[in-house]
Design a protein that fits this description.
The protein is mainly β and 587 residues long. The chain is 11% helix and 32% strand. Helix 3 packs antiparallel against helix 5 (564-585).
Length: 587
């Protein structure tokens, strides 16, 4: 239960604007009249600062910043702002726009900006072409910020004389790589370098400011890794590396081969050994930093809890799961089966290693624990699903506390809990008591066995395995129908080997199919624009897969999904242009 009886509010972003919903005493939710609803239809982002002091949103005209009493304190002239992010203490607000060029400005202009949150003063700007991993990386005390620009990491020390005007240190050689800072005031630097020309990919761990040391504190190399997801524990002592390839050459996995590795600040490195084969659906650290959970394998998938030595310490068995979520205190863990699964949810007591409940939340595209740790929200949002949008709030015991269904032909895009400073809420006492909830008004899928129309309302005595003809008695068989079903003997004369039609090699006898003129992979690689678009679409596909698994996506990742249609349109236009060029060259 929350201290001071204060419950977190919910920020909603939809096709009709931004609104705040507050909690009532019984943990139901109503629209908060003290927040002046922003009715813009182009709200691209909404975000709370980590310490909960500020709320910011972009409405397509300006970026507004408000305090928890929902009063706007400053507005920024950034109509094209696409992503928003606060620094750890909320001192700075960063905005990112899609990078563009024009004939008048072929080099492009700055698209990443830093502002003082309270005054709106612009303190830094630069060109950041990246959309994936565009965010600056901060130390917890905001004394250090790292930017990955191109293949180089730039480190700015805000407490030094140069501040944001000049990088204090640089770390190069990371073309198409990524960087991640550990939590804490004296961070470690994880630097991922993709392998080229047969060389393995590598992740190196440095202690700032000793990034020029001859040897890193720890490093891990691996083959078959086109992408890596770096996940620090809350203490900043351990790092999980989820690697994957864009394509699995063996054909086993549609999304490519995956592997999970671990390195720590003591210099140790391990490969996490999983008991069964199959994809890795979800990985999450416990907020306590001493254990992590992995969901893996073919359905029904396994869920296993590991310690920081990568030893399995508890097996949750198998089930229809593809997402794992720890509550903020680490005493409860939730497993969900979303996307192509039916939305089954399990909640476990981690102290007793006992399942508390099982419930169902079909069509869930977003799930997030409340900061209080005793209830969570599930939402059905566009663009993943454009019908049946809405959100529900659940108690950990499986009781439904609140439900809001969005009006038809209107879209809900995002739901976010209001944030609070650490230690604001005590860990909930987990009991076996069943909380009384409400009955959902969402139509439930029928569990009855499907019966084809031809077999419905059969007269008494009819055999469902036989074809029934209306108007005729049950069991009647048509002689003509029976004759048709008899296999006719093959009276055609057999041809000799010499008379047989010569087969073309490599399956060239197969008929040509219409619309088979799309660009292949080799052509995409030769055209940088096509290759870039294909890469972005693969990244969107990965994000969609994460979203289907119930993994929490941040506002930046969700906004990226909205680019899919424009990217597909651009891809088709490039293909048409290639066709036109080819037609002109053909005599």
């Amino acid at each position: 239960m929350a201290q001071n009886n204060k419950l977190p509010a919910l920020a909603l972003r939809s096709g009709t604007g931004i609104e705040i919903w507050k909690a009532t005493s019984n943990k139901s939710f109503v629209a908060d009249a003290s927040f002046v609803r922003d009715e813009s239809k182009n709200c691209r982002a909404v975000v709370f600062s980590p310490n909960g002091e500020y709320l910011a949103w972009a409405n397509g005209t300006k970026v507004h910043v408000a305090t928890p009493n929902w009063k706007v304190i400053t507005s920024l002239p950034r109509p094209k702002a696409f992503y928003l992010k606060f620094s750890p203490k909320g001192t700075y607000l960063m905005t990112w726009e899609i990078f563009t060029t024009s004939p008048a400005n072929p080099e492009g202009s700055a698209n990443l900006y830093f502002y003082k949150t309270t005054t709106g003063e612009e303190v830094f700007s630069c060109i950041q072409k990246r959309q994936i991993d565009w965010e600056p990386h901060w130390s917890s005390d905001e004394s250090l910020v790292a930017l990955m620009i191109g293949g180089e990491v730039l480190f700015y020390e805000l407490k030094s004389e140069t501040g944001l005007s000049k990088p204090a240190k640089r770390l190069g050689g990371g073309r198409n790589g990524s960087v991640s800072l550990s939590p804490g005031n004296n961070p470690h630097i994880a630097f991922y370098i993709p392998g080229v020309k047969g060389a393995p990919s590598m992740c190196k761990l440095f202690k700032y400011p000793n990034i020029d040391a001859p040897q890193p504190i720890a490093q891990k190399s691996f083959f078959q890794a086109d992408n890596v997801q770096m996940m620090w524990n809350a203490r900043g002592t351990g790092l999980l590396l989820l690697t994957s390839t864009d394509v699995d050459a063996t054909g086993v996995s549609y999304y490519g081969k995956q592997a999970l590795h671990f390195i720590n600040t003591k210099g140790d490195s391990f490969s996490v050994q999983l008991k069964v084969e199959g994809p890795i659906h979800s990985v999450a650290w416990s907020p306590r930093s001493t254990e992590f959970c992995v969901i893996y394998g073919y359905m029904p998938s396994k869920a296993t809890l590991f310690n920081v030595k990568c030893d399995p310490i508890f097996d949750f068995g198998t089930g229809p799961r593809n997402a794992v979520h720890f509550n903020p205190h680490g005493n409860l863990v939730l497993f969900g089966g979303f996307g192509n699964l039916r939305g089954q949810i399990e909640v476990w007591d981690l102290e007793k290693k006992k399942q508390i409940c099982s419930s169902s939340a079909p069509d869930t595209t977003q799930l997030e624990w409340s900061p209080t740790g005793d209830f969570y929200v599930t939402a059905t949002c566009a663009p993943r699903l454009r019908i049946g949008n809405g959100f529900k709030v659940w108690h950990y015991s499986g009781a439904l506390l609140h439900e809001t269904l969005w009006p038809e032909k209107q879209e809900l895009w995002e739901v976010q809990w209001q944030t609070f400073p650490p230690e604001t809420f005590k860990a909930p006492v987990v009991t076996g008591e069943k909380v009384v909830g409400i009955q959902s008004s969402t139509p439930q899928a029928s569990k009855a066995k499907y019966v084809p129309p031809s077999l419905r309302n059969l007269p008494a005595g009819a055999d469902p395995d036989e074809k029934y003809i209306p108007g005729l008695p049950p069991g009647y068989k048509s002689s003509s129908a029976g004759a048709k079903n008899q296999r006719k003997p093959n009276n055609r004369p057999q041809t000799t080997t010499g008379e047989q039609k010569q087969q073309k090699p490599n399956g060239q006898n197969r008929p040509e199919t219409a619309g088979n003129n799309t660009e292949d992979a080799s052509k995409s690689e030769k055209d940088p624009k096509l290759a870039k678009i294909h890469k972005k679409l693969r990244e969107i596909r990965i994000l969609k897969d994460k979203q289907e698994k119930g993994e929490k996506l941040d506002g930046n990742q969700k906004q990226k999904l909205e680019l899919e249609q424009s990217l597909v349109k651009e891809l088709n236009e490039l293909k048409l242009a290639h066709k036109a060029q080819k037609a002109q060259k053909t005599p």
